[in-house]
Amino acid sequence: MILTLAGLTVGYDSNPVLTGIDLDVAPGEIVTLVGANGAGKSTMVRTIAGLMRPAAGDVVYEGRSITRATPAERLRLGVALVPEGRQVFAGLTVRENLALGTHAVHGSIDAAERRRRLDEVLDLFPVLAQRLDSPAGNFSGGQQQMLAIGRGLMSGPRLLMLDEPSLGLSPLLVSEIFRLICRLRDRGLSILLAEQNARSALAVADRGYVLENGRVALAGSADDLLASSEIAERYLGAGAVAAGSSTAERAMTERLRQLL
Amino acid sequence: MTNFIQLLIGGVLTGCIYALIALGFSLIFRVTGVVNLAQGAFCILAALACASFEMQFGWSILAASLGAVAVAVAVGAVVGATSFVPGLTRLSNANMLMLTAGLLTVFEGAMQLIWGSQPYALEPFSGQEPLAFAGITVPTQGLWMLGITGVLVLALWVLLTRTRLGQALRACSENPTAARLMGVSVPRMTLFSFCLSALIAAIAGVVIAPATSLQFDSGRLFTVSGFIAAVIGGIASLPGAIVGGLVLGVVNTLATAYLSSLYSNAIALGLLLMVLVWRPSGLMAGGPARRQDVRDEARVWKRVHRLSPAAGRFAAVAALIGAVALPHVMPSEAILGSLVIVGILFVALIGLDLLMGWCGQVALGHAGFMAIGGYTAAGLAIDHQVSPLLGIFAGMGLSLVCALVLSVVTLRLRGLYLALATLSFGLLVTSFAVGLTELTGGPSGMVGIPSLEIAGWAFDTTESMYHLVLVLDVVLVVVSQGVMRSSFGRAIQAIRTDQMAAAALGVNVLRTKLVVFAVSAMLASLSGSLYAFNFHFLSPDMVDATRSLELVAMLVIGGEGTLIGPLLGGLLLTLLPTVFAPLASAKTLVSGLLLVGCFLWLPHGLYGLVVDGLNGIFRRFGETARPGAVSEEAAR
Hints:
The complex is a heterodimer. Chain A is of the alpha/beta class. In chain A, 42% of the residues lie in helices and 24% in strands. Chain A has two domains: 3-227, Rossmann fold; 228-260, no CATH class. Chain B folds into two domains: 10-124 and 138-278, ABC transporter involved in vitamin B12 uptake, BtuC (Orthogonal Bundle), CATH 1.10.3470.10; 333-545, no CATH class. The N and C termini of chain B lie far apart (58 Å). The chains are: A alpha/beta, B mainly alpha. Chain A binds chain B through residues 49, 51, 70-72, 75-76, 81, 83, 87-92, 96, 99-101, 103-106, 137, 151, 155, and chain B through 164, 167-168, 170-171, 173-175, 177-185, 287-288.
């Protein structure tokens, strides 16, 4: 396993956001986290990236515990996060944004390697190559998402985490982003994907975890989860249930009840 | 023409120094979103240290300068690591602004203890003989200022745009979360920017020291000028800092030469207000400014401490009995006199608490309204024999007008810019108090103010003033308490918690803020009038920016949004030097340290401590303690 979470509990004071999470990611697979708003997906990837400290439990990466490592140390080991909402440096140019991607690993790679990685990223995202010296703030949402992914790749990660990469993008762009995620997996990257858009995420993933109120409610292969009626009712929308209007109505009633 | 060119050169040279200080402001603001008012203190610290090294240890100019800059940067590193950087994670922007004001006070207090209050002047680097060219003379020190400014600006530009460190620094200023994600240590970068601006200010201090004389409290002048320069240029823009500094230097010099030195401050501040109103982002808008809405961002959750009803009743009755009995059991005239001052300041503090603590606005120039009230009532009483009460009302009326005008002018401003506008308003009032000698008696003050007399009752003894102030304070507290429980009071608190949500609930945010601001201005004015009648004397430095910051310190140390809390803060800061005489010389240092310490370690103020203690006692006796009545959670 490239990443193992053992009994991970994260939270503020007595109010845990995640409780006793066990999860693992094998080399070269896409694992997706599915769950409603506030289920704890972002907290989990932020904790793995080192932005938050767990209250209990262990984060094990390639056999060693990184629970106490700083974000910089984790980047050097090969863990990178593409954060929710893209978070590009708006006033800095594309080139500077990408250069900051290598900030943590600067000491261990030479200029030629940096150049090679830059070419690789620009190869993946030709649209960035045309506007290398313009400020990232002027870009559209889709272009910023590509920049954020490219910036994450600059550190040369073996585990890439993406937090809601499809947020606020048009359906066309969403499928482009998911195709790209598959390409990255085919290059040997392990990917942990936190996504509200459960259907698209499960469609590209190998395995999935369903988070509910900070706990793992269900886990299994992506195909099983897609087929599971429980998942369909809760996260894929009532229309996905083929069993007829009565089930759909029941699902709707159930959802309404949850909302109220 | 020669004369004009000569003046222009002088203005540019002064402007260089302003530009350097402004650069420090912009640098820290870009990285943290905080305006560091302690900036000017590093300037003076380096200059005074340099003087000591040269005069007492006999070091050469170069060695003394380098040593002084090193001392200032080291002090900056310690201060930054222990107060500024930890503060960023727990304080709102408004409180950070006031924390830096507290740091400025700490520096002034400490430097007063070390170097005394006499001015120091240094020898120019390259002798007294100025350069003369075509009838124009330039002091050699001026060339040093120009040269060093140029070198510093160039070095800073290279650092920020051409190095990895600079790139990381800019990343922090753009997006701290993403910067952390890139492995950049944001606290370390913040500390670095703090030290870097201390370095720039220290170099400016060493270079300017031979051109002017400096003393322990000149730092605030540099803070104010540098800050005005930064705002004029655009506080988030580094080139703007330089442009702003030069503009301010030239305008100031020309105004001093062609108008009057007394109004050069007023002109600079008028310039600042104009820029704030018409072009808040400055002449050269910088990158996207972050966190600029000082109070609008509820970053810190705070428990608001409330007394349980039983404890509250007990404490109120006990305090009232104590206060009434005090003059009879306390023979010391000095302490009673101090208590009168506390009571008078408490009038202003109630207004300030309504505005800052309850409504969540920032006011850093409230002493300006004290000055308006004081000078109006006293001036009318002396020159026109108007009765004091009428004079007080006239002062409150004028304050109301000023508050409304200021509000209309600053209607578009929010957060930081509003805080800065109130600060400059206070400074503007002070410069008028100094400048309008005919009306105010100028810097030496207004003498011969009669005692307060209301309907035939003369309040000419300390004891009678004490009783008057006591009654007034009690009435004000009871009324304010009632207002806070009314629907208007709830609207005020809603604005503090979440302006947007308040507006969505139908609260007229603008009008409510305006009313609160006007009320607090009138209370400050009333306080200022009483202050003048109590002392029979009023000078600009009794109601200047220091007083404004002292009021804020009292409010914070006592506990914001508690009505009674500020009284505790006022008592502590006023009585401490009276009771412990040795502390009198260190008063500034102590009040600064208390302010900074309270921000960092006692966010609920003294009131929080007292409330927790009283509630604890009452719970232990187990008489009343209704669960849930003891404290309530409220968002700040």
